[in-house]
Amino acid sequence: MKACVFVEWDAVPHLTKEAKEAMLASIPPWQRDSRTRGIPQLGSGAIYTVPESEFVVPNIPIEKHWARCFGQDVGWKINATLFAAIDRDTETVYIYDEIYKSKSEPAIIAAAIKAKGEWIPGVIDPAARGRSQKDGIALLSIYRDLGLDIRPADNTVEAGLLKVWEMLSTGRIKVFRSCTNFLAEYRLYRRDKNGNVVKSNDHLMDCIRYLVMSGLNRAITEPKTGPNGKNWWDWEPKQIDFAG
Description:
- The chain is of the alpha/beta class and 244 residues long.
- It is built from 7 helices and 11 strands.
- The chain has a domain at 56-224: Nucleotidyltransferase, domain 5, CATH 3.30.420.
- A hairpin with a 4-residue loop joins strand 3 and strand 4 (92-101).
């Protein structure tokens, strides 16, 4: 049996406050969580070098007037979905929930997504249009038939990586601490020696890229039924071009 223990330097009694401040000043920002909190990092190979301490936040209530959406990366080994809520007053995107399932049929995945809110629209891995899982039927059509409001995502890689990094580094993306699979992937997301993105354990990393490139502009607030039986919204959102 093996175990991995993370030890923060605050647990080391012989390090004084002055010593820690001096050491912190000499550590590059992307290594600070690793050196001070014992969280694994990949140093210069990491794609996102923003320390987790700058964007990971405690879970907070999602306000009714915050628009929501999801990004989905399809697969048999892992099928991942990431949920975002937008506080348009502060132009902050909160990654507040995730689904991370292996070897699950589309019906199970769709039910899990709808359980978070059937009204929430999303974007899906555009490769789903050309994939087949049963009898040559496209996955995109399957998920739509199962009741999901989805469209193919913009899968532009380098522009998407840059946009995510910009939003993380400027405080426009916050991630709930409970999104443990997202954080596990974030710590390992890297490029190889040739500068190519390593396509392993990156399902939620793809999801957040889909979200910032096309999902956020689909986000809506939860509809309510008015006296005339039609849907209406409590609050008229300010339009923000997140993909611009």
